[in-house]
Amino acid sequence: MGWTYRSNCLLVSGVPVEVFNKFSLTTCRIAALFVLITAFLKPSILPAWPYYLVPLIGLTATLWGVIWWLGMKLYMSWTGLRLIVTRKAFIQQEEENGEWVMAYEIVRHRWTADFVAEGSDEEEDTIL
Q: Which residues of 83-117 are buried (b: 16+ CB within 10 A; e: fewer)?
């Protein structure tokens, strides 16, 4: 049992937390179904490409990212290399309101051997 069943916590309106959680879960499921269904409804004015193509690409964007990630992992395991990504952000304080903002960021990618010999510096094993 979760903490909501063991506690006697009530929301401000006097509704128990577990009732509110079930209501929130149901609302989120209905909203997700609404988005999935309405994305694939046939429009009144048909575009030049199949009408389902744009929502299909949009909804599968995460899948394409996972496929890319798996491809990189496979490549790294086959070649014995690993990709090291280093980021260095440069932030500065604005003169007007004193908020800190990132002016720019330097991102470096380098392939290194998957192993580092004892007593050696990782920089020496870098493959360009």
A: eeeeeeeeeeeeeeeeeeeeeeeeeeeeebeeeee
Q: How far is CA 14 from CA 5, 7, 19, in A?
A: 15, 14, 11
The two structure tokens encoding residue 32? 């997700």
**Residue 15: pLDDT above 90?**
no
Domain boundaries, the chain: 1-59, 79-128
The DSSP H or E segment spanning 81 is strand 81-93
Q: Report the C-alpha gap between 42 and 34 in whole angstroms.
A: 15
Tokens for 111? Answer: 């392939």
Mean predicted confidence (pLDDT) in 55-65: 91
